[in-house]
């Protein structure tokens, strides 16, 4: 799968710009703040129906405008696909495939698989569990539409349960029977989500270890494991029942699938506590490239790979390993941003790979 053309209208700092891409490697070079990352985000938006960086569409329109439009032309399984996002923030959002709007945005997820890697992805290891759950959900949702359906249902009921607990706390009237209804509604989607997350980590872990060995030159062994409250109490309704008094006191749901986590290790030591900056960066790169490999394996197609400023804080040795992996590995279409105009192009030219290079300057692109 590949994107052949991208047309941006009023998206972030792009007023009107069109791109024709190489089927292999596309290098986006230029100083910081020029729009390289915004271009990657536009591609991600067409694949996932939302920005990777900004949770609210109202911050995505060019300053002074009240709408944005992203159009992408894709070659997928020997068919041409036209995907268009038309967004009027706070009013209307429409995602179309070949001129036909999706009834539900969730129907599009997984159709155009994508993996993005950015510098702030190190927060996956250093911050709280929410970021790691998003990584789990992002990956599995691209593979399994039923998982996404159950996840949406679980999150909806969880919000209702939390709202009810808050209202009970404010009124001083605790309604245990109402919580029983919510708990029953959480049971089926929760079980499915738990089983899929467990299976994902089991399949993912050896892929992660292999990719990290390649990037680090075999310096350490990387691993991840799954932690969930359901591992101690597999019956979600019983688990929620045991925490009901705590929920009543704190006015929120204190246990469940929304408390799941991934634990990252290097040589069986916690990554968060013992990794150097270079090891941390290498681990996160490995995590995302392993995500790529797992999606490619399960969907039998290569996702788009978006790499934003990935060479920052990597020593020359690790940069060489990473570039060799990207250029010699079984990847499809790759997009790389870099402030160093020569670094990537020289490496690509030495391997005689097909690529296009764009200089990005204040929302304008020049093909080099």
UniProtKB/TrEMBL annotation:
GO terms for biological process: DNA replication; DNA synthesis involved in DNA repair; double-strand break repair; SOS response. ATP binds at residues 30-37. GO terms for molecular function: ATP binding; single-stranded DNA binding. It is found in: Cytoplasm. InterPro entries: DNA-binding_RecF, DNA-binding_RecF_CS, P-loop_NTPase, RecF/RecN/SMC_N, RecF_2. Its main location: cytoplasm. The keyword DNA repair applies. Residues 3-347 form the RecF/RecN/SMC N-terminal domain. The RecF protein is involved in DNA metabolism; it is required for DNA replication and normal SOS inducibility. RecF binds preferentially to single-stranded, linear DNA. It also seems to bind ATP. HAMAP family: RecF. This is DNA replication and repair protein RecF. The lineage of its organism: Bacteria, Pseudomonadati, Bacteroidota, Saprospiria, Saprospirales. The gene is recF.
């Amino acid at each position: 799968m590949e994107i052949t053309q991208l047309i941006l209208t009023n998206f972030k700092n792009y007023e009107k710009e069109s791109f024709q891409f190489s089927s292999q490697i596309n290098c986006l070079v230029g100083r910081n703040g020029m729009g390289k990352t915004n271009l990657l985000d536009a591609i991600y938006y067409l694949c996932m129906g939302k920005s990777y960086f900004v949770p609210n569409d109202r911050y995505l329109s060019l300053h002074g405008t009240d709408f944005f439009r992203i159009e992408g032309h894709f070659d997928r399984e020997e068919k041409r696909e036209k995907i268009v996002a038309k967004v009027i923030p706070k009013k209307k959002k429409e995602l179309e495939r070949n001129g036909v709007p999706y009834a539900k945005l969730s129907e599009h997820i997984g159709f155009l698989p994508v993996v993005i890697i950015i510098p702030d992805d190190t927060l996956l290891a250093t911050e709280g569990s929410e970021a790691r759950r998003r990584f789990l959900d992002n990956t599995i949702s691209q593979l399994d539409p039923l998982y996404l359906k159950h996840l949406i249902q679980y999150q909806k009921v969880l919000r209702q349960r939390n709202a009810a607990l808050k209202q009970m706390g404010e009124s001083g009237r605790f309604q245990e029977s109402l919580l029983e209804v919510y708990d029953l509604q959480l049971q089926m989607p929760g079980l499915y989500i738990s089983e899929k997350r467990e299976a994902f980590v089991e399949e993912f872990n050896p892929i992660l270890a292999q990719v990290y060995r390649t990037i680090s030159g075999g310096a350490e062994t990387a691993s991840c494991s799954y932690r969930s409250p359901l591992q101690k109490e597999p019956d979600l309704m019983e688990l929620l029942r045991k925490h009901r008094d705590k929920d009543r006191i704190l006015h929120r749901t204190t246990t469940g699938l929304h408390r799941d986590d991934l634990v990252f290790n290097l040589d069986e030591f916690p990554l968060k506590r013992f990794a150097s900056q270079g090891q941390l960066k290498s681990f996160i790169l490995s995590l995302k490239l392993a995500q790529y490999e797992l999606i490619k394996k399960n969907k039998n197609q290569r996702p788009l790979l978006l790499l934003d400023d990935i060479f920052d804080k990597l020593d020359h040795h690790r940069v060489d390993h990473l570039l060799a992996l990207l250029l010699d590995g079984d990847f499809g279409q790759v997009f790389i941003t870099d402030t160093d105009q020569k670094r990537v192009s020289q490496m690509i030219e030495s391997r005689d790979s097909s690529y296009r290079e764009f200089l990005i300057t204040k929302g304008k692109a020049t093909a080099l």
